[in-house]
Design goal:
This protein is an alpha/beta fold. It has a single domain, classed as Alpha/Beta hydrolase fold, catalytic domain (Rossmann fold). Helix content is about 25%, strand content about 25%. The strands form two sheets. A ten-stranded mixed beta sheet has the order 2-3-6-5-7-8-9-12-11-10, sandwiched between helices. Strands 1-4 form a two-stranded antiparallel sheet. β7 (about 150-160), α6 and β8 (about 180-185) form a beta-alpha-beta unit. The relative contact order is 0.15.
């Protein structure tokens, strides 16, 4: 994690491919970690590269982290990663460790960049599918999804802090290309979500988060409700059983799993006792942001939830 991420987050606290693919069997892919028998060239250069789209005459950028392998034995799933307020696409790739996992697990990691001095996402607009940010995200997805050897049926969203709000707001948007959503340290539910289909969501939050309080309150971006109340809204929206199944993990993590959800939707939450405004098992811990648990690895759990597993 770069030092500028710490500065950005602390500031927020204060202020708050290529062509030529072989034949495909034509079967749609789900979230079981499999892909069709297909050999082709990787759609992006290995490592991290920057790309652009134009929205309402404005240049917007996003980063893509691609696996080292150039010749693929199957299509690549896509994970869209959204950074927090005041942070950057490069920072969140680094801090979460997902760029490294993109090579290990063979997926494309796509990190759009917010604009403006504060680099803040318009979460409420995204939930309604309105505004420049909503259009930007859709345009990025169209550009990425149109590449050869990209598995258009296995695309997912994840975010941290303000970016977590984006990821979950996309579930309210009712996107037809995203299959599951993940968030860390900011949740979201509004009236805009009520007309969307059941959504599969995995979520993480620390009870000691001073930036986005677990029990609700003011944040640098917008006011939030208590995490348990928002999760209950999602459980109701998804048609799940009211009371989740609880499991204690280690000394400081409790997992809640809601069952019986409509349309095979899945809803899970990992609550970190005393956890701060941090990514569970981040490589670098910053005490100014609170406790970083090592009991669970958010990145690996999220990818497993998405069905992106090691061979």
């Amino acid at each position: 994690m770069t030092t500028r991420l710490v500065g950005a987050v602390l500031a927020a606290v204060v202020a708050l491919g290529l062509a030529a693919c072989g034949g495909s069997d034509g079967k749609p892919q789900g979230t079981d970690g499999t892909s069709s028998a297909k050999t082709c060239l990787a759609p992006y250069d290995a490592g991290v590269s920057e790309h652009t789209v134009t929205v309402d005459g404005k240049r917007r950028t996003y980063l893509v982290a691609a696996p080292e392998a150039r010749v693929l034995s199957g299509t690549l799933p896509v994970v869209y990663l959204f950074h927090g307020l005041g942070s950057t696409a490069a920072d969140v790739m680094d801090y979460t460790g997902l760029a490294t996992l993109a090579d290990e697990r063979q997926f494309l990691l796509v990190a759009p960049a917010a604009k403006g001095k504060n680099r803040e996402w318009d979460v409420t607009g995204i939930a309604k599918g309105k505004g420049e940010d909503a259009t930007f995200i859709d345009d990025v997805a169209k550009q990425v999804g149109s590449q050869d050897c990209v598995d258009a049926d296995r695309q997912f969203a994840v975010g941290l802090s303000n970016g977590s709000g984006v990821s979950i707001a996309l579930a309210c948007h009712g996107s037809d290309y995203l299959k599951a959503y993940a968030g860390v340290a900011t949740t979201f539910f509004s009236s805009a979500c009520k007309q969307s289909p059941p959504a599969s969501i995995i979520y993480f939050h620390g009870t000691g988060d001073d930036v986005v309080p677990f029990n609700g309150g003011k944040t640098p971006a917008f006011d939030v409700r208590a995490v348990p109340d928002v999760l209950a809204d999602w459980a109701d929206h998804d048609g799940c059983e009211v009371d989740p199944k609880l499991k204690k993990i280690g000394k400081d993590v409790e997992r809640s799993t809601w069952q019986g959800c409509d349309d095979d939707a899945r809803l899970q939450a990992y609550i970190v006792d005393g956890g701060g405004h941090t990514w569970p098992d981040a490589a670098v811990a910053y005490p100014t942001l609170g406790k970083t648990t090592k009991t669970v690895d958010a990145g690996s759990l999220i990818l497993a939830f998405f069905g992106i597993t090691k061979d």
